[in-house]
Design brief:
Two copies of one chain form a homodimer. Chain A is of the alpha/beta class. A seven-stranded mixed sheet of chain A has the order 3-4-2-1-5-6-7, sandwiched between helices. Chain A has two domains: 140 residues, NAD(P)-binding Rossmann-like Domain (Rossmann fold), CATH 3.40.50; 164 residues, 2-Layer Sandwich (Dihydrodipicolinate Reductase, domain 2).
């Protein structure tokens, strides 16, 4: 296949939050689609999704479902991805997977498009992997700095939106929001001496609250999200020596993740140099005026990761503080996946 | 005056969010009040506030208004505090000030009750100062660790509630919340290509958003809140060498501030030792199970600072990560002020 040729595309998990966004991004970017096949769970089979002025019907996954496809984009749970991504690769499709199932596989490139797309040259399993949504935002902001001065250590605290937990996360915030409208006083001091009501996604209210646990708590008390941020950042930036310590926190925001990062380098970097590096980097927009530092609402729906609050660290000469925010459904998932697909479509077949 | 004697108490700024809380805490803790005089701006004069089963009328500040008072608690803007706190001290009252006006004055103790109450022994101006609400929460969590192993450096990111901006902050979140209820979809991608609507307290929406600027941006790009956290932490812990780097962020929570802290010590501290130190400390409750880490809603309205997510830092041996949350109106302001007043009331007159 050569650049520009129209492709037969499959989207697995097409009815999910990210799957829906993949369809939108394919359409918005004019990806050359010859055929689109949408897959989801059996209970969604038969649903019809809008695409490119027409409609596509949703099918259940099954024997032979990928036959004839050039590209398959996957956004489902790890166990399903482990089963179906290799099945798609087996019929010769290029696979772009958004799950965590293959990210740390040495034979699967883990890519943020525009940052380390060259890793796509080595794809022995026919599968490319997209990082965790929080990691993608972080890496887009940090890569230009890492290339110039090599990062030694990162201390990261996140402000992650509920859409990171998919449709159920959005619904839970929306439901709690609506329920308390007009009586937010109940949230002023809800902790007063009693247990808080439990949601389905989170065990405590997320509306009017923040929950300092994103993912499941595992090794050494860190959550799955926190370990992903450490491991995936090292793999994408290609430097196993980067030390990372992270605390991942859920906030009552619908879309877009944000984070603070305290960054130590192998040589001093001052805010002026960092600003120049970020200003000339792809996929990042620096908001230089501190008070105008970008919020998640501003990064939602736009392509670049927005960076602000660049400050020299008074506690450690040569280190920097910064703030970054990016759309977890786009740069954190669908946009990155489609950009990887665009890159693959321009590569000569091996 | 000796312990237990009933006191004539003035509260300046009695109609504000913290002032109201001071009245509540005085009542709840059975502070020995012989007389209560409530002061506020002239436009609030004549209002009647409930107190201890009765009512107190609000008066405007003016010549002689403090005559005969033993204790005056002040929660107003810095310029007003600069004018009226010394006036209260001049008539012989002990003054407990919540503003930032006197915090860094070497002749004014800056106190978190139970942490460094002994600093109240030296009060040459008759004024004691309460720290910034975020700092008070942080210091309550860190003091037991600092005493044992001396803190070298702190990297802090905050999750601060809107009540830190007083009644207008609460109102702004409540108004935006109500406005968007039932149509939170508008907040999903509000950033899409347009300017966001501006509030009165914050220049962008705070409902469904986080704003990475708390306070005004000043020296070296740090905000007033961030500088306060550094300077006040050093003064309260009595160690000018503690290096602090902070990013202060506003979140759509009504009451209670929260924060992550990455803590380096002069000697290694592991989570087990830290847990023991915190378990035996006053004013702190450790939630040892990571997944149950305390949220702001749980700390709102309760006395102790809640600490969770104690983890060894994999990026720096001997360092710790933790999460802390406390009620900014209580431990961060009113409760601390009343506890300082209780301490002063037990001290022999000099």
């Amino acid at each position: 296949m050569t650049g520009g040729e129209r492709q037969r595309v499959g989207v697995v998990g097409a009815t999910g939050l990210v799957g829906t966004e993949i369809l939108r991004v394919l359409e918005d970017r004019g990806f050359p689609v010859a055929e689109l096949r949408a897959f989801a769970s059996p209970r969604s089979a038969g649903r019809v999704l809008p695409f490119a002025g027409g409609e596509v019907e949703v099918h259940a996954l099954g024997e032979g479902c990928f036959d004839g496809l050039d590209l398959v984009m996957v956004d489902v749970d790890d166990p399903l991805a482990l089963e179906w991504a290799p099945a798609a690769a087996a019929v010769g499709a290029s696979v772009v997977d958004n799950s965590a199932a293959f990210r740390m596989d040495p034979d699967v490139p883990l890519v943020v498009a525009g940052i380390n797309s060259d890793a796509l040259d080595h794809m022995p399993k026919g599968i490319a992997s997209c990082p965790n949504c929080t990691t993608a935002v972080l890496v887009a902001a940090l890569a230009p700095l890492h290339r110039a001065a090599r990062i030694r250590r990162l201390v990261v605290s996140t402000y992650q939106s509920v859409s990171g937990a998919g449709q159920p996360g959005l619904r839970e915030l929306d439901d709690q929001w609506t329920k308390h409208a007009g009586s937010t006083g109940a949230l002023l001091r809800a902790g007063d001496g009693g247990d808080l009501p439990s949601g389905e996604v989170w065990d405590r209210p997320i509306a009017g609250n923040v929950i300092p646990v994103a993912g499941s708590v595992g090794d050494a008390g860190f959550t799955s999200e926190e370990w992903k941020m450490a491991r995936e950042t090292r793999k994408i930036l290609g430097d196993d020596d980067i030390a990372v310590t992270a605390t991942c926190v859920r906030v009552p925001v619908f879309v877009s993740h944000a984070m603070t990062a305290n960054v130590e380098f192998h040589r001093p970097v001052d805010p002026r140099e960092a600003a120049e590096l970020l200003a000339s980097a792809e996929g990042v927009t620096l908001v230089a005026d501190g008070a105008a530092a970008p919020t998640p609402l501003e990064s939602a729906g736009v392509d670049p990761v927005l960076v602000g609050r660049l400050r020299e660290d008074p506690s450690l000469p040569g280190a920097l503080n910064l703030w970054a925010t990016g759309d977890n459904l786009r740069i954190g998932a669908a946009l990155n996946a489609v950009r990887i697909a665009e890159h693959l479509s321009r590569m000569p077949h091996s």
